Amino acid sequence: MAEHRIQLRWSDGGKPFTYEAYPREHEILFKDGQRMTASASPAYRGDGVHGDPEDLLVAALSSCHMLSFLAICAKKRITVQSYEDDAVGFLENDGGKLWVTRVILRPKIVASVDAAALEPIHHLAHDACFIANSVKTSVKVEPR
């Protein structure tokens, strides 16, 4: 149906290629030349300044949920003035395998209707989010 491409670039930067020394920073190029620097998490010798793959997974899930939510609200003629999310993902050890087992989305929304009216829209948005549909990670929505 659609292809989504990025370019990823990394180089050793002249540093020795040992586990302790090689740089974890790399560049991700998106369509139209937008660039982002990413790194490993500090637990894996990343710099801690840039987003890491785990952060990017949480961000993708949060962004997809928000975009699905906003589309549904617009189609239902519910006006949304703002949407904020303090999402968190949990990297856990499951039988010796590390993976992001769960993500909690905590959206805070200002809209023309109350929180009770938005609750079923969150369910619809979750079902429509193709990023959430693409991962085995448990994704829960806990509106604030």
Question: In a few lines, what is going on in this structure?
Answer:
The protein is of the alpha+beta class.
Residue share in helices?
25-40%
CATH architecture label of the largest domain: 2-Layer Sandwich
- What's the SSE pattern? EEEHEEEEHE
Major sheet attributes: 3 strands, antiparallel
Oligomer: single chain
CATH fold label of the largest domain: GMP Synthetase, Chain A, domain 3
The structural domain count equals: 2
Overall mean pLDDT: 96
* Percent strand: 25-35%
Neighbour order of strands in the largest sheet: 1-2-3
Shape: elongated
Structural class: alpha+beta
Termini separation: 35 Å
The strand count comes to: 8
Helix count?
Answer: 2
Uncertain residue ranges: none
- For this structure, what is the CATH homologous superfamily of the largest domain? K homology (KH) domain
Text of the CATH class of the largest domain: Alpha Beta
Could you explain how this protein is built, in words?
- This protein has helices spanning 53-75, 115-128; strands at 7-9, 26-29, 35-38, 80-85, 88-94, 97-105, 107-111, 138-141.
- The chain has 144 residues and is of the alpha+beta class.
- The protein folds into two domains: 7-44, no CATH class; 53-141, 2-Layer Sandwich (GMP Synthetase, Chain A, domain 3), CATH 3.30.300.20.
- The strands form three sheets. A three-stranded antiparallel beta sheet has the order 1-2-3, with no helix packed on it. It has a three-stranded mixed beta sheet with strand order 5-6-8.
- Helix 1 (53-75) crosses helix 2 (115-128).
- The longest helix has 23 residues, at 53-75.
- The radius of gyration is 18 Å and the shape is elongated.
- It starts with 6 loop residues before the first strand and ends with a strand.
